[in-house]
Amino acid sequence: MFNDFLKNEDAQGMTEYILIIALIAVVCVAAIKMFGREIQELIEKSTDKIKRETRDFSR
């Protein structure tokens, strides 16, 4: 019975996918922690420039 349990590999693929997804999630969280402020500043600068350009264009 125990040998049959060890030989059963049906869930192995699913476990590997779960581990890969967990690793990707950890990398994403780390990247956001490291670069979050810089990304936010870039988005704010871009938004401000778009607002200025569209305001000037509409006049």
Q: Stretches where pLDDT falls below 50 for ≥5 residues?
A: none
Q: Mean pLDDT, rounded to whole units?
A: 85
Structural class: mainly alpha
Helix content: over 70%
Question: Largest sheet at a glance?
Answer: none
- Characterize the overall form: rod-shaped
Q: Compute the separation of the termini in Å.
A: 81 Å
Keywords:
88% helix; rod-shaped; 59 residues; single chain; mainly alpha; 2 helices
Structure description:
- With about 60 residues, the protein is mostly helical.
- The protein is rod-shaped and about 80 Å long.
- The chain has helices at about 1-5, 10-55.
- Helix content is about 90%, strand content about 0%.
- It has two helices and no strands.
In short:
With 59 residues, the protein is mostly helical. The protein has helices at 2-7, 12-57.
Topology diagram in text:
Blueprint: H1 2-7, H2 12-57
